[in-house]
Design brief:
This is Thiamine pyrophosphate-binding protein. Helices cover 40% and strands 16% of the residues.
């Protein structure tokens, strides 16, 4: 050995790349295709922000965690991809509970990430420490704690995967502060490969059941179909349209299924649903549970053959027996049924002309009965006039959002989105306050679309301060407040149950000029008291290019038929 060889220094070991928990979160979000998170800051979660900056994920910070959760829900509905909200521990997470619960009932895939005190301080009473997982488990499809930094991205991907187990829904993940802030060798942390950790959940259903449904529809004299939320969830618009046109079946739409067929389509029906359900011989319910909206199934004729199609086995036949249940992807199922029926020498389409004409006559009768109210020149403004003007204002590119009680019940009878996926409402949880966060998500995800939102004055008040967030992030929309200074849906029920002298206990609001609120926060605002002022004000809001509120003073003593028919008041 030479002297030089003996004294040569040993080669220095290569430094191991380290990565923090927050950066692993961001990488897992990127792998899922998440391009924006909705959040309210807190010391437990800021390393996630740092990771998002590096991964090019937009951070939209709001003023209340409920808004963040609703926005993540709204993002999922608009895009068909998973939404994500990030909140801090304790009250940050509990503030988001309502948004997560709403997503559960609406079958909306979103991930809520919550902070937590350090594992090293477990059960010691650390700041904002609460049993988040225990609280979230009943209202999510998956809820867990990340026990080690190496598992962060792995568990994020696991939470995303569970969002799509059966019908979609929310997941929750809490990450303790020391787990999130710690750094581990990059090669010891599993970071899921995009597209490598989730399989397709699309199922076509039992082939024998497909054939049976094709037989039922081909041989039906008076069939009808209800297209619910899952038509949009599974992007089954084309499949549904092809079935109803090929087999000449009248279609009704609810929830996010609205807009599957455009207004004016010969198979689009809206006002004759009760008549159809009472007189049809075959009723197909797609992607809608037999919950309160369906009278728990009792609104369907007992003589009809009832078929239910749903992503979730637990929904089919719940609350009401069905003659045929098919579990699977509605789009695949409807396409298969159309194909199965297409090979028949006679698919029955021509024989149903009289049935469609019978229903159209019922539609026309209901429409003409209501038309004078939609054109009412009364002041204070009749709610039907307001929602009529909104419907006339919408274009094919207008996403319509309803957030309220009585006023949105009016709009459900009149407002018709012109395109699929252009209707948003809270869903079956009936959560007020979704409007502003849904606007935020819709405009952020689809800046090419116009967003039009109708609020009750009570509903707007719940999350209205995030109007400022819309201004801050330059997310313009046309907002309308149907202002009757009341929680009128509740007021009606109290009056009906306890008498007029007690109808205003706990439900009367102040006369708030919301246009001034909008202007104060940097938006566009106008007051409207006469019906002829509605359309010009809407046009000016559209042209302003700003977040806007048109405060429309409506008649306080007029109630929607749906409000007066609510069974909880009887």
């Amino acid at each position: 050995m030479t002297q030089d060889m003996a004294t040569s220094p040993e080669p220095e070991p290569q430094a191991t790349e380290l990565i923090s928990g927050g950066h692993l979160v961001a990488k897992a979000l990127k792998a899922e295709g998440v391009d924006v998170i909705y959040t309210l800051c807190g010391g437990h979660i800021i390393d996630i922000y740092d990771g998002c900056v590096d991964e090019g994920i937009k951070v939209i910070d709001v003023r209340h965690e409920q808004v963040a959760a609703h926005a993540a829900d709204g993002h999922a509905r608009i895009t068909g991809t998973t939404g994500c909200a990030v909140v801090t521990a304790g009250p940050g997470t509990t503030d988001a509970v309502t948004g997560v619960a709403n997503a559960l009932r609406a079958e909306s895939p979103m991930l809520l990430i919550g902070g937590q005190g350090a594992l090293s301080q477990h059960k010691m009473g650390s700041l904002q420490d609460l049993p988040h997982v225990d609280m979230m488990a009943p209202i999510t499809k998956f809820a867990a704690t990340v026990p080690h930094t190496e598992r962060v991205a792995d568990l994020v991907s696991m939470a995303f995967r569970e969002c799509y187990n059966g019908a979609p829904g929310p997941s929750f993940l809490e990450i303790p502060r020391d787990v999130l802030d710690a750094k581990v060798p990059r090669d010891r942390a599993r970071v899921p490969r995009p597209g490598g950790y989730r399989a397709s959940t699309r199922r076509q259903g039992d082939p024998a059941a497909i054939e049976r449904l094709a037989d039922l529809l081909v041989n039906a004299e008076k069939p009808c179909i209800l297209l619910g939320n899952q038509i949009w969830t599974t992007r089954a618009t084309d499949a549904a349209t092809e079935l109803v046109r090929t087999l000449n079946v009248p279609a009704y739409m609810n929830g996010a299924g609205r807009g599957t067929l455009p207004p004016g389509d010969p198979h689009h029906y809206q006002l004759s649903r009760r008549y159809a359900f009472n007189n049809a011989d075959v009723i197909v319910i797609v992607g809608t549970p037999f919950d309160f909206r369906m009278g728990y199934g009792r609104r369907l004729s007992p003589e009809a053959t009832v078929v239910q199609i749903d992503l979730d086995y637990r929904t089919v036949g719940k609350n009401r027996d069905v003659d045929l249940g098919i579990v699977g992807d509605p789009g695949l199922i409807l396409s298969a049924v159309t194909q199965a029926a297409s090979g028949r020498s006679d698919n029955g389409a021509s024989g149903r002309k009289a049935w469609l004409e019978e229903l159209r006559a019922e539609e026309t009768k209901a429409y003409e009965k209501r038309l004078p109210l939609q054109h009412s020149g009364a002041s204070p403004i009749h709610p039907y006039r307001l929602v009529h003007e909104i419907n006339e204002f919408l274009t094919e590119d207008s996403i319509y959002i309803g957030d309220g009680g009585d006023i949105v019940t009016f709009s459900g009878q009149v407002v018709q989105p012109k395109s699929p996926g252009h209707w948003m409402d809270p869903g079956p949880l009936g959560t007020l306050g979704v409007g502003i966060p849904f606007v935020m998500a819709a405009k952020q995800a689809r800046p090419d679309k116009e967003v039009v939102a109708l609020f009750g004055d009570g509903a707007f008040s719940l999350t209205g301060w995030d109007f400022e967030t819309l201004v801050r992030f330059d997310l313009p929309f046309v907002g309308i407040v149907g202002n009757n200074s009341s929680m009128n849906q509740i007021r009606y029920g109290q009056g009906a149950k306890y008498g007029k002298d007690r109808e205003r206990v706990g439900n009367t609001l102040g006369d708030v000029p919301y246009s001034e609120f909008a202007r104060m926060l940097g938006g566009h605002g106008e007051e409207v008291r006469e019906p002829g002022q509605i359309r010009p004000a809407l046009e000016r809001a559209r042209e302003s290019g700003k977040p806007s509120l048109i405060n429309v003073w409506i008649d306080t003593d007029v109630y929607a038929p749906g409000t007066m028919n609510q069974t909880m008041y009887k």
